[in-house]
Every structure is written in structure tokens, then in C-alpha cells.
Write a sequence for this structure.
């Protein structure tokens, strides 16, 4: 990272901190509250604690990613899930003026703030294989609840302004994050192999289709960092990437960064077992699971190559190198079927 990058990062963090301080002023009950950054990745997340020890989560959204009405759609979905499902989610809080979302402008850049309730729990441990496999059964059941709710409210959610996660916006010509071809560790040979896999993915998704029983409003980022384990309960946080996508994409996001682990197949089996308690998957849907997992893997390569944070620095080029075996196996399995 060069000096100019360092200066830009300092400016960005300064703006986030200013937005956080200004956001608290929208809540008269939090004028004396403490505010501490606990995570900076795509957004800046702060732990807020009032004088009585009550905790909240303040999110300052990354600039130029969502419009205000898109964040309001996310909030509407959270409230709907809270009212109509047993899923435990972090709820948005209204400020003194009755609004959930507030805009803060610095250096001609708008930062949106939203305050959420605080949920107790810790993220699942990817190194605790036995517990993780058991937890994935619960996660599968929760995910099926999400999807069943989406299907039941399909017409209502069609009016929501949220992003679409499909082939074009993940691996295709209009990627929301970046091009996987520009990821770390890419070589001409590797790009050729991955493009072959991407072509197969595209063909399979076109055949799979977007029926409302397969495609709708989803969380779209159920990775381990966005889950909280509290006893036998799993709570779900961070709906920032929620949008319209294939339901099985939620499964793929839940194994983000661990797709190459030897226990992957056990995780999938456990997830499907839990999911089937609410919604049965067809043979065609089960057959599509590897396609969604590899699509997500390639998307994460693009994310790592286009971001600079603690997670991307830790994963780096090695994540691409670890993908080779997965891509080769996928191409060898499906290339003859799609020629």
C-alpha cells in the first residue's frame, strides 16, 4: 500500500467517525453514549453503549453503494421478518424524528447511518468441525424460513428497491463488486480455466431459471461472520447485501472462504437436512449446489482483489491458488454435459 492509499484511508475513516458522532445526535437517549468502531470492511460498524449499559450497533454505510430507499427496503424486510417469522434479527431503531436512515455529508460524499439493536452471541468457529456441522443443520432450517417467507410475500417484495444477484452481476458483464479476472494471482492459464468454469455456470443457471420458488429476496451474505451463536440458537445479522437472487445462493454464501475445507460435503448435507424440515429441495436443486458454491467462490476472488481490509489481506492470493483444484474438478465434472 502506497502513501497516497494510506492518506485516503485515513480520510475515509475520519469521515466514518464523524458520521458516527453525528448519527448519535439523532437520538436524544444517546447524547452521552460511548461509540467505538468494532469493524471496518465494506461498512463501518460501531458498538454504542448508553449510560445504563444498554448496547446498540451503529452502521455507517459505505458511500455510493446503496441509495436511501434501498436501505429503507432492507429495513422493511427486517421488520417484516421480525413480525412474521421466528428468525432472530437485529432490528433497526427509529431516531427522534421517526426516521431509520440519516444522511451525513463530508467532502461531497454522503454516508448513511442506521442504528440497530444489539444481539448477544459469537460467530461460529470454522476450526471446530463438529460444532460447525451441527450448527449448519440449524442454519439450513433458518434459511428455509427466510425463503418460505420470501415466497409468501413475493408480490409485496417485488416493489422493493434492492440489488439483483444473478450471473450478470456476479460473474458477468456488470459485476457489483469487481471482475474476477482482475483478482489476485491471475495468470493467462488460470483465467482460461476459470472462464471455462464460468461459461458452464452461466449455461446451467440459464437452464435452471428464476421461478419464484427458486429466486427471490435473499440475505445474500450468510457467511460465518454474519451469524451469532447463542446457546442452541443462531441469530442473523448484516443484511447490507440482501437483494434478489437464487435461494441456493444463500447456501453458497454460508460456506464463503471455507469452500476448500475437507468437511464441506458434511456441511452441505447438514444444511440440506435442516432446510428440508421446512422446504424440500428437488433433485435438480441438489444438483445445482456445486454450481452456486463455485460461482460464489469466483465472486469472492473478485472481492479480495478489489478491497483492502483485514480479511482480504489475510486471504490474499492464496485464496485464488486454493481455488484451482475446485475449478478443475468442476470443469471436469460438467464440461461434457454442457458442450
Amino acid at each position: 500500500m502506497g502513501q497516497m492509499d494510506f492518506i485516503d484511508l485515513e480520510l475515509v475513516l475520519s469521515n466514518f467517525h464523524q458520521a458516527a458522532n453525528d448519527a448519535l445526535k439523532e437520538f436524544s437517549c444517546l447524547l452521552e453514549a460511548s461509540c467505538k468502531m468494532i469493524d471496518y470492511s465494506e461498512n463501518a460498524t460501531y458498538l454504542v453503549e448508553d449510560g445504563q449499559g444498554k448496547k446498540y450497533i451503529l452502521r455507517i454505510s459505505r458511500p455510493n453503494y446503496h441509495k436511501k430507499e434501498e436501505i429503507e427496503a432492507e429495513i422493511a424486510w427486517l421488520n417484516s421478518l421480525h413480525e412474521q417469522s421466528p428468525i432472530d434479527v437485529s432490528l433497526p431503531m427509529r431516531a427522534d424524528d421517526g426516521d431509520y436512515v440519516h444522511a451525513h455529508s463530508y467532502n461531497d460524499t454522503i454516508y448513511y447511518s442506521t442504528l440497530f439493536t444489539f444481539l448477544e452471541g459469537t460467530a461460529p468457529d470454522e476450526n471446530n468441525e463438529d460444532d460447525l456441522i451441527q450448527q449448519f443443520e440449524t442454519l439450513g432450517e433458518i434459511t428455509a424460513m427466510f425463503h418460505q417467507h420470501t415466497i409468501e410475500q413475493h408480490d409485496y417484495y417485488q416493489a422493493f428497491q434492492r440489488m439483483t444477484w444473478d450471473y450478470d452481476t456476479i460473474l458477468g458483464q456488470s459485476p457489483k463488486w469487481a471482475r474476477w479476472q482482475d483478482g489476485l494471482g491471475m495468470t493467462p492459464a488460470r483465467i482460461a480455466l476459470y472462464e471455462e468454469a464460468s461459461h458452464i455456470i452461466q449455461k446451467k443457471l440459464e437452464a435452471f431459471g428464476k421461478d419464484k420458488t427458486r429466486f427471490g429476496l435473499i440475505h445474500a451474505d450468510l457467511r460465518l461472520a454474519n451469524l451469532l451463536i447463542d446457546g442452541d440458537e443462531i441469530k442473523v445479522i448484516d443484511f447490507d447485501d440482501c437483494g434478489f437472487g437464487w435461494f441456493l445462493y444463500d447456501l453458497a454464501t454460508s460456506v464463503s472462504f471455507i469452500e476448500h475445507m475437507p468437511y464441506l460435503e458434511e456441511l452441505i448435507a447438514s444444511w440440506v437436512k435442516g432446510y428440508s424440515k421446512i422446504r424440500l429441495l428437488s433433485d435438480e436443486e441438489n444438483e445445482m449446489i456445486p454450481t452456486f458454491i463455485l460461482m460464489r467462490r469466483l465472486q469472492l476472488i473478485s472481492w479480495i482483489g478489489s478491497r483492502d481490509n483485514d480479511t482480504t489481506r489475510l486471504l490474499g492470493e492464496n485464496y485464488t491458488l486454493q481455488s484451482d483444484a475446485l475449478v478443475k474438478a468442476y470443469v471436469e465434472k460438467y464440461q461434457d454435459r454442457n458442450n
